[in-house]
Amino acid sequence: MIQERTLPTFDTNSIKISQEEGLILYEDMVLGRLFEDKCAEMYYRGKMFGFVHLYNGQEAVSSGVIKAMRQDEDFVCSTYRDHVHALSAGVPAREVMAELFGKATGCSKGRGGSMHMFSAEHNLLGGYAFVAEGIPVATGAAFQSKYRRESMGNEAADQVTACFFGDGACNNGQFFECLNMATLWKLPIIYVVENNKWAIGMAHERATSEPEIYKKAHAFGMVGVEVDGMDVLAVHSAAQEAVARARAGEGPTLIEALTYRFRGHSLADPDELRDKEEKEYWFSRDPIKQFTAYLTENNLADVAELEAIDQKIEKLIAEAVEFATGSPEPGADELYRYIFAED
Ligand SMILES: Cc1ncc(C[n+]2csc(CCOP(=O)(O)OP(=O)(O)O)c2C)c(N)n1
Ligand SMILES: [Mg+2]
């Protein structure tokens, strides 16, 4: 029998969500799931190149955190598993898909591809291919908000930054250095560890002396919490508290979300290392299925309404593929463009 680290069921009576909030979370998770399924299809049809890392199974983390933030005002920083964070942050699906196709209409103008989604318009600080590379970038973004507000007297500079990374990133020095500075300077940042138990083929317990990552925050005097990353309401509630803390100038939070990726590390990974039993345990905790049950059981939505949302998203993604397919590739004469900032 496998022994999984799971948390007590989140008490949904401890929070109140409106129908509108519920449907926003549902729609965002479905968008993430169906977008990634379409990516797999397009990848195997040869429409995109290089490594493509999908987010299936982890949707409750992206939606739960980012939907607790102010879109286009707060900052989001990701990793190479970044498509869904970009979507939750408000980057249009067509721009994410076009980026994956290497097209000039992509959110990084076709120069970035799967691992380098970026959007100045939506305050997406980027996807980063090196493990833990985004952590100092996000910490810097949080520093500039604080500096503008407190040192330059700009009251409006109350932006919060959310920084997403994996369990594998937590044994990298940048993680510890940034936790130290963020606490010391009380930066308005939320570090979100998506602990999906694996770093490619390395099991978290085999690589980590203290596998309960949230506890590492405590060594710095930072608030650190563990949360069921398959329960969007649990994540959302923890994120709302962390956002409020950051916005009030009370400093950072480390949220460790226990989650699981439903596919291999990347689309090039045959996923033969993980036990069938382990996978089945986590598949049975599918965040979208669980939230569908919550919405219907609590009369926040009926099945027909949810199906209508699914269909709307399917259409949106089909249009994104059409847009990406019909978009031009960047011209060879523009090879050197966007390397340096332009006037
Ligand atoms: C600095 C660095 N070392 C090694 C790699 C190779 N690598 C790519 S993904 C990965 C695993 C990271 O796992 P985790 O942080 O748990 O994120 P997940 O893939 O599970 O989302 C590694 C070691 C890298 N990209 N960067
Ligand atoms: Mg991992």
UniProtKB/TrEMBL annotation:
Subunit structure: Heterodimer of an alpha and a beta chain.
Cofactor (UniProt): thiamine diphosphate
Domain of life: Bacteria
Keywords for this protein: Oxidoreductase, Pyruvate, Thiamine pyrophosphate
Classification via InterPro entries: DH_E1, PDH_E1_Alpha_Subunit, Pyrv_DH_E1_asu_subgrp-y, THDP-binding
Taxonomic classification: Bacteria, Bacillati, Cyanobacteriota, Cyanophyceae, Oscillatoriophycideae
Catalytic activity: N(6)-[(R)-lipoyl]-L-lysyl-[protein] + pyruvate + H(+) = N(6)-[(R)-S(8)-acetyldihydrolipoyl]-L-lysyl-[protein] + CO2
Assigned EC number: 1.2.4.1
Residues that span the membrane, as ranges: none
Domain Dehydrogenase E1 component: 28-331
NCBIfam families reported in the protein's UniProt record: PDH_E1_alph_y
Xref: CDD domains: TPP_E1_PDC_ADC_BCADC
GO MF entry, a single one: pyruvate dehydrogenase (acetyl-transferring) activity
Keyword Oxidoreductase in record: yes
Keyword Phosphoprotein: no
The protein's name: Pyruvate dehydrogenase E1 component subunit alpha
UniProt function note: The pyruvate dehydrogenase complex catalyzes the overall conversion of pyruvate to acetyl-CoA and CO(2).
Gene Ontology biological process: pyruvate decarboxylation to acetyl-CoA
